[in-house]
Predict the 3D structure of the following.
Amino acid sequence: MALNAKATQEFIPIKEVRDGVVVLKDGDLRAIVLANSVNLSLKSSDEQKATILQFQNFLNTLDFSVQISVQSRRLDIRPYLLLLENRIKVQSEPLLKLQTKEYIEFIKNFTESVAIMTKSFFVIVPYTHTALKSDSGVLSRLFSRRNKEEERAAKQVDFEEKRSQLEERVAVIQQGLSRCGINSAQLGTEEVVEVFYKVFNPGEVEGKIKIS
């Protein structure tokens, strides 16, 4: 007996991803900033304290909330192995071919016995637009007379205005991270889609590359 299972999209508050901006179903916007990591263990005690204090000051200066997400995933070594396999095919030196094959076997055995993880650090920057509601019904009657093109143009203007506010917040985040010695970059549309795809489809990513 088939179950009436709801589509995954019904449980995700995302309406669309436009120009690198996540548009939620309630009209709010989100931007995702990818940040690199800083190895504090390689710094001196004074440098560690200075970095932590700088990051604390950065957070205290924010007048809006942010979300920090850390994704830890097993490193997919297969593209690298595939590259080595292709090099063997064009390699004419028998000794180099043998050494490359042995190196491939070493990498395979090592990665099977040791879980090599990679971490990605994201800062989610929000923008929430609050609009006053009118109970008079005058505005609703006025907007109901708009044709589809006018409504589409109005929505685009509204999106651009909210995106401008969001980009100002992104600039604040990136400047604050830079002062902490952290490089960052805002994700584009394809990168944002890839992040969510990997979150909701972790198994499918594993089956994309096949090594003979």
Summary: The chain has a mean pLDDT of 81. Residues 13-74+119-206 form one domain. DSSP finds seven helices and six strands in the chain.
